[in-house]
Amino acid sequence: MTEVVVSIKELEKEYLSGRVRIKVLNKINLEIRREFLAILGPSGCGKSTLLRILAGVEKPTKGTIEFHISSERPRIGFVFQFPTLIPWLTILENVALPLESAGIKPKEARDEARKYLSLVGLSGFENAYPHQLSGGMKQRVNITRALAIKPQILLLDEPFSNLDPLTAEALRAELLDIWLSGVAGVEAVVMVTHSIDEALFMADRIAILTPRPAEVRKVVEVNLPRPRNRRSPEFQKLEDYIYEFIS
Ligand SMILES: Nc1ncnc2c1ncn2[C@@H]1O[C@H](COP(=O)(O)OP(=O)(O)OP(=O)(O)O)[C@@H](O)[C@H]1O
Ligand SMILES: [Mg+2]
């Protein structure tokens, strides 16, 4: 399972702040395989920027991203760092919207949206509005919306960081189940996080970034069986090992 899905080569990003140039990404070289890849880095180092460039919503200053995917344009699902549900649309409409934008007829889009909502245990909430849902349910809807377009690549930007610990843990397990079962047809998951524990719990590999401007400092393979036991000596050993690269 070492097939490469995305090649990131010599990627750089600079922002212009007034007349000052701020370098955010510096010579990022990274191959994304058919895998669950975590991108771990300190706050403000450029993780979201990297994800936005991968999603194609922002352009790099230098470097290239190549997708080794059968379709002409990769389908990319994006779960943003901050909630992005549209408040005046129902849950069903929120999930169906990107499908309709992709050219699917409204009726089919809604059927599809319904199917995915049931996959994450949200049947019965189709007609609710975002403000009527808990934080955890909203984030479930965000994930569902990203999955419903059948993405080849799923990008997650700190998807669990604004949730209470119990809800976050339940959602991590659910997302892993969906990924491992293959039901959504996703080829690669890229999850940004600043939690070593979360990265170790979920990912096949962890790319550790330096503080800004972000460079890839180290890529660590997580060869631990799933479901992972945080209390196992192997888990804790890897945790200590990774800690050395981010402190
Ligand atoms: N559109 C922009 N214009 C100018 N500067 C920007 C822009 N977007 C991001 N930056 C700067 O780039 C740097 C990296 O931002 P980014 O959001 O990618 O970091 P991050 O690693 O995701 O941080 P966090 O962990 O806080 O989410 C920050 O210093 C930020 O101020
Ligand atoms: Mg961010």
TrEMBL record:
Domain of life of the source: Archaea
Database matches in CDD domains: ABC_NrtD_SsuB_transporters
SMART domains, A to Z: AAA (SM00382)
InterPro entries linked: AAA+_ATPase (IPR003593), ABC_transporter-like_ATP-bd (IPR003439), ABC_transporter_ATP-bind (IPR050166), P-loop_NTPase (IPR027417)
Keywords from the UniProt entry: ATP-binding, Nucleotide-binding, Transport
Name of the protein this chain belongs to: Nitrate/sulfonate/bicarbonate ABC transporter ATP-binding protein
ABC transporter domain ranges (all copies): 6-236
One Pfam assignment: ABC_tran
Organism of provenance: Zestosphaera tikiterensis
GO terms of molecular function: ATP binding; ATP hydrolysis activity
The keyword ATP-binding is annotated on this UniProt entry: yes
UniProt-listed Gene3D superfamilies: P-loop containing nucleotide triphosphate hydrolases
Keyword Ubl conjugation found: no
